[in-house]
Write a structure and sequence with these properties.
Length: 483
């Protein structure tokens, strides 16, 4: 039986709905980097110490990472649009509270609520895209747009943050979310499908939800606090041990309850499992690269905040060209394995170029080539990673699968950044002890971290290229490419 062909107006409506979803997600993605530019101003205005200032970022990261899985499952139970709108309201209201903050405590609490809203929006956005686009070619294009927003939004945040802080004040890095949030909410009411929860079991696994959310929050806290407290300190090891114990309890609960939060049988889906491992490795490399390359540009080459944002622009333009067109065509022709492996290998070459960047580097020779290759690799590979994680999952579990893959990226990014930043700091400290200049010592640390990140990307490429199975709907494409 042939499926009915969507009318032209229905197709236009779906792409408008995708635009609305991507604007909502872009607001969340921007918030992860736009705040970094404002941190010195926030510290001076609200009286944060060096140690407590980190909580402006950490409060957001904790709740964002901790509630991704729960947010995705709630979307499956109660409807993806309903949860998207709820998350949007939470995030926008918390952004207003952040922008109006007059004390340290107020700002940190509001940032925690922002993270909760952001987790819900991110967890169900992918599911809504899967609901809207069911035909393989259109889904690949839609995921390419989503991938571009996720991968490129961070660099836009650096530019926008520098502009807002320099022309207005730090308050506006939060207040800018208000008009965007209100516009996305109004458009979502008109354009997003009001589909009821797709899960056939109307039951929330409360015990599993509490156990895994607490485990994720403890794990993220231990990771973001590890550099300050010490990776082998009793506090860090104790929190990691508690996180592991809670995760074991979660697995035990999932094998016993009638309607588990995460059906463990999902991980028998080979592509979902492999895509999440690839996501952890790749996010670890990319999060660390973005953070450390910005520091390299500022502390070693002497760039200002706006110059850093502009330096990332060529890579973003290449990423846009790939994500918004080329990646979908490559996936339709070659399937998911080869584009994923090839894109990650290209990104690995870009990271390797940064691993040789000198302390007296020049933009055209030592920065631009690596930026372009990372933009090309990310633009090609991000779409296949998401498709591999989502495409074999039943519609009733799409929100959960989205939460799982986003959690993998979140945890991989947090862990990779913490580990590679610690490696960079240790290498810098050793170099300073030899008596070399500060900039050269910092550069030695960054190069060591970039080299380790290159290894992460290569391993991710090998896992994806060797272990992923062809998508069922594209098996023919992968077996016999169109000429």
């Amino acid at each position: 039986m042939n499926m009915p062909t969507p009318t032209a107006s229905a197709r236009d409506g779906r792409w408008l709905a995708l635009t609305v979803l991507c604007l909502g997600v872009l607001m969340i993605v921007l918030d992860t980097t736009i705040v970094n530019v404002a941190l010195p101003s926030i510290r001076a205005d609200l009286g944060f110490s060096e140690a407590t200032l980190a909580w402006v970022v950490n409060a957001y990261v904790l709740t964002y990472g901790g509630f991704l899985l729960l947010g995705g499952r709630l979307g499956d139970l109660f409807g993806h649009r309903k949860l998207f709108l709820l998350g949007l309201v939470l995030f926008t209201a918390a952004s207003l509270a952040c922008g109006m903050a007059g004390s340290r405590e107020w700002l940190v609490i509001a940032r925690g609520i922002q993270g909760l809203g952001g987790a819900v929006v991110t967890a169900v956005a992918l599911s809504l895209i899967m609901d809207l686009f069911t035909e393989p070619a259109e889904r690949a294009k839609a995921m390419g747009v989503y991938g571009f927003v996720c991968a490129g939004g961070g660099s836009v945040g650096v530019l926008l943050g520098g502009l807002l802080v320099s022309t207005l004040s730090w308050h506006w890095v939060f207040l800018v979310n208000l008009p965007i949030g209100l516009a996305v909410f109004a458009a979502s009411l008109r354009l997003l499908p009001a589909v009821h929860g797709s899960s056939d079991v109307r039951h929330l696994d409360v015990g599993g939800a509490l156990a895994v959310t607490a485990a994720l929050i403890l794990a993220v806290y231990a990771i973001v606090d590890g550099n300050q407290a010490g990776w082998l300190s009793a506090r860090t090891l104790g929190m990691l041990a508690m996180a592991v114990a809670l995760f074991v309890l979660f697995l035990f609960i999932e094998t016993r309850v009638r309607a588990p939060l995460v059906p463990l049988k999902l991980f028998r889906l080979r592509n979902l499992a492999i895509a999440n491992v690839v996501g952890v490795l790749w996010a670890g490399a990319m999060f660390a690269w973005f953070f450390l390359s910005a520091l390299y540009l500022q502390l070693v080459l002497g760039y200002g905040p706006m110059e850093v944002g502009l330096a990332f622009l060529p890579g973003n333009l290449v990423m846009a060209a790939c994500s918004l067109g080329l990646s979908a065509r490559i996936v339709m022709r070659f399937g998911i394995r080869r584009p994923l492996a090839g894109g990650l290998l290209v990104a690995a070459i870009g990271l390797a170029l940064f691993a040789r960047a000198p302390a007296d580097g020049h933009f055209l020779v030592d920065v631009l080539p690596g930026m372009v290759l990372l933009g090309l690799g990310a633009g090609i590979a991000f779409n296949p990673v998401l498709l591999a994680a989502m495409n074999d999952v039943e519609p009733r579990d799409s929100g959960l699968a989205s939460g799982i893959v986003n959690t993998a990226f979140m945890m991989g990014g947090a862990l990779g950044l913490a580990v590679l930043a610690s490696l960079a700091a240790a290498r810098t400290g050793a170099a300073l002890e030899t008596g070399i200049a500060q900039a050269a010592a910092l550069n030695a640390g960054y190069r060591a971290a970039f080299l380790a990140g290159t290894g992460f990307a290569v391993v991710a490429a090998l896992l994806g290229g060797l272990l992923l199975r062809p998508r069922q709907s594209m098996a023919g494409a992968e077996a016999s490419p169109v000429h």
